[in-house]
């Protein structure tokens, strides 16, 4: 090998410009290249140097061109980095500068470009101007590199290549490059273009070289333009083609593309598959979701109706205008919710239980004598009955206390006798479950009845209580009065009406006692009393008037005992009248 050839070979190797004639399908150029190759081959003997475009130029230019190139080689390298970034733009600039449509085509950096050229639809000037108008910065140059590389590797439309060994070389190069992709990128693509352009500019002053560079630039621009077509080259369906070679980077790129496609598909809001929700067949909450909603709606409607009814009841209750006599009675007996200071100012000792029933300043001798005679006696328990057969013999006149559970029956017995703890009480409804008989002295019996309505007991047991109470109030011999206790806050309930109807049928005398008056305002106590009197005024067995009491505060207890109420129409309390009659 001559020194000149060696130098040329080294130079080419260093520049690593992949332009050559091996894959170029243009017949005219192929001929020229092959001629050159043959001539070089002849010169170099067995040596098989890479045939590149630069060699072509060097061969044409002769040894002088090669020497010039060696002299300017350093400056070319110094410009390379800068041009690497803006390679595409520079290529476009070069292409504009050397634009010539008649120039023979250099070895294209992409098959696409070649095909375009082959078809004759390649317009150098147009592409060059386009590249100038839309220069692609770094990304473009990278894409160009990859496009050029990918096209080189994957192009299935590779025409018949005259020199098969060059294709082999390309594949070998590609393999090596795949090991070091960065290095590979720095070799191929726009850098190759800029190197080629700079080389051409420096070593060839002829128009032909300029035209070649122009064509290269145009081809690269074509690659940029057809960049999306890379997917066609990467299409796995073409994998079966013997000409397609997938490098690792290409496979990676294909995989990334697939992932991106899937993500974009999901982002579009059109996921292909929905997650299936499995319903547990044994889970009641999962069943008949729609029905549940309907039930909820229906229950809500019912609740609304009840609320409306309740509102209307309340409105009706608030519309009641109690009589002045009832209002006066309420005020005189300090019924209703009162403040402690109010009780203290009235002279009551609030330290005592049921303080309103403890009036030390009582002046009525008659009333005191009655209380002394009857209610100062000891209250004693003597019998309890669960069934009617267990009732004690009716030796003494009986006064019974009936009413709903928790209404305060047992508490009232204690309050009347002021003997706390004789009768058991509880805040839980349903404590008293039997008919309890108490003797007050030797002439009167007080009977505590089990309650009805809501209670902490089984339905059958509660039904048995009701039946027992009904039997007692309707058949008990010696029963003089039934005090029917009504909670002042809630008023009368259907069960109360049932018992009233029964007593009316059995002609049992009964009197209404409003309990727990301390839980509501005084005006509401009066309203309730008025409401009940109005409702029951047609009843024959009813003993008027309704008595208002509070076992807690003691209000109305004394009136209940002695029955001497000036404002009450009857003028006498039922209990006291019974007691006076027996004493
Ligand atoms: N604020 C207030 N609470 C009362 C009054 N009378 C009774 N209570 C309370 O009401 C609850 C029930 O009292 P009880 O006497 O056990 O009622 P009951 O009617 O005998 O109930 P049963 O035996 O279940 O039928 C107890 O916690 C009493 O403290 C009252 O006048 N005012
Ligand atoms: Mg009780």
Automatic annotation (TrEMBL):
MF-aspect GO terms: GTP binding; metal ion binding
Organism: Prunus yedoensis var. nudiflora
PANTHER family cross-referenced by the UniProt entry: EXPRESSED PROTEIN (PTHR47560)
Protein name: EngB-type G domain-containing protein
Compositionally biased residues, Basic residues: 44-56
The keyword GTP-binding appears for this protein: yes
Superkingdom of this protein's organism: Eukaryota
Biased composition (Polar residues): 154-164
Cofactor: Mg(2+)
Cleaved signal peptide residues: none
InterPro entries: G_ENGB_dom, GTP-bd, GTP-bd_ribosome_bio_YsxC, P-loop_NTPase
Domain EngB-type G intervals: 395-570
Region (Disordered) residue spans: 19-248, 262-281
Similarity-based family: Belongs to the TRAFAC class TrmE-Era-EngA-EngB-Septin-like GTPase superfamily. EngB GTPase family.
